[in-house]
Amino acid sequence: DQQVKQNSPSLSVQEGRISILNCDYTNSMFDYFLWYKKYPAEGPTFLISISSIKDKNEDGRFTVFLNKSAKHLSLHIVPSQPGDSAVYFCAASAPRSGDKLTFGTGTRLAVRP
Amino acid sequence: DAGVIQSPRHEVTEMGQEVTLRCKPISGHNSLFWYRQTMMRGLELLIYFNNNVPIDDSGMPEDRFSAKMPNASFSTLKIQPSEPRDSAVYFCASREGRGGQPQHFGDGTRLSIL
Fold first, then answer.
1. Model confidence over B8-24: pLDDT tens digits?
2. If you count residue pairs, one on A and one on B, with CB atoms under 8 Å apart, how many are there?
3. What is the DSSP letter of A82?
4. Is B23 in a helix, a strand, or coil?
5. Is the CB of B102 less than 8 angstroms away from the CB of A32?
6. Which of chain B's residues have a Cβ under 8 Å away from the Cβ of A104?
7. Across chain B, where does the E strand assignment appear?
């Protein structure tokens, strides 16, 4: 039962353009969402998060959008840089689930110079 | 600041052997998480501790897996006996506070069981 889904396993974008990574979830109890970035041979690194009471959160080049009615969130990276090439994981947590995060399977982003 | 430290970074051993993975969380963090990453199942939570107490071990695959947190600065994940299907990357993460705070991951232990 995959409660957090990242349906695109990979994405290739030209440097300077926008990268849009998508994530869908099925559990309506999720109230907090995070994006992590992972380079090879390293652990995931926290990137940005959003609470379900918001529909947008921005941090520099990174913006996360949340559409609760569609159970969909997306991460926008503008402008994309070659150093952004990594695997991006979407994660979610629900109240009363303790501190547990449920992760998606990841999307590999390649930014072409 | 030192992040989450895991050891060893790589472990290759023969099936049937005992394997012990170690984790030192970030000082001051009161929650610790063990994850396993495989191609088939992605990143899955095995167990987590809050204030050194195991809270949820429902993700531990079998009795061959056990985890301890004897103090706030150290945790172990043990597999005994190990099997080839245990081959994966195991991550440890820690977090301060509750909810609303991101987990910080170590760089993982790549485990290969021959």
1. 999 999 999 999 999 99
2. 54
3. G
4. strand
5. no
6. 42
7. 5-7, 10-13, 19-24, 31-38, 42-50, 53-56, 65-71, 74-79, 88-95, 104-105, 109-113
